[in-house]
Design goal:
Layout lengths: L4 E7 L5 E7 L2 E6 L2 E5 L4 H11 L9 E5 L5 H9 L5 E5 L3 H5 L9 E4 L3 H6 L5 E6 L19 H10 E11 L4 H9 L3 E6 L4 E6 L1
Length: 205
């Protein structure tokens, strides 16, 4: 039986250990030994991007912000869903995670080594969709400061960064009725997509 091989490690701003492992062609990212994501299962990341970009095929010059690069499955699904004149900004706070992915061969996408919250607070021309595939969702596992994204203030900041009719799509490891109510309080019309392994919150501006 093949063993898991440790490929690389890095530290979060909180000092937690993030490690990349490989086993028989499968890669996994762990935080302090707990599995965060794997290349074996990525359907939920793709579904997240599909839902967020569903209404953007006919939107000229659409702009999408993705928080969290992971293994790049959310980004690739967004690229497949968006037209040729779209712009996608991916915010990834950990330099090592960027290095663990192959270079992006698509001029529509750019990866910034930056906290997604900073971009949300300074969105430029605004975004048609903001996709948060950050940490474990509203119950952060990797970095405690990520909790701000899912607070009332953080949700209001995301709403302000969206263009009219824009949407905020959030991946979560579990159902969270209280969080859905919080999104509603922050001004979103909320649609919830549940699966046995994840929940996706879709908030329309």
């Amino acid at each position: 039986m093949k063993k898991w091989n440790l490929i690389d490690t890095t530290l979060t701003p909180d000092g937690k250990i993030v490690s990349l492992h490989e086993h028989d062609g499968t890669r996994t990212i762990r935080v302090d030994g707990a599995d965060l994501m794997s290349t074996r299962r990525h359907g939920s990341e793709e579904k997240l991007a599909e839902l967020a970009c569903a209404n953007l095929r006919g939107v000229r010059g659409s702009r999408v912000l993705i928080g969290g690069l992971g293994f790049g499955f959310t980004l690739r699904a967004a690229l497949d869903a968006l037209p040729k004149d779209a712009t996608i900004i991916v915010a990834e706070i950990l330099t090592a995670v960027v290095a663990w992915n192959p270079p992006i061969n698509d001029q529509r996408a750019v990866v910034r080594n930056q906290d997604v919250a900073e971009i949300i607070r300074d969105p430029g021309k605004g975004f048609d969709a903001i996709i948060l595939d950050v940490d474990n969702g509203p119950a952060p596992l990797t970095t405690e400061s990520n909790a701000h994204l899912y607070s009332y203030q953080g949700l209001q900041e995301a709403r302000a960064a969206l263009r009219p009719n824009g949407c905020l799509a959030i991946w979560s490891a579990k159902p969270d009725p209280k969080f859905a109510k919080l999104m509603t309080r922050a001004g979103f019309k909320v649609d919830i997509h549940r699966d046995r392994s994840h929940t996706i919150f879709l908030g329309c501006r």
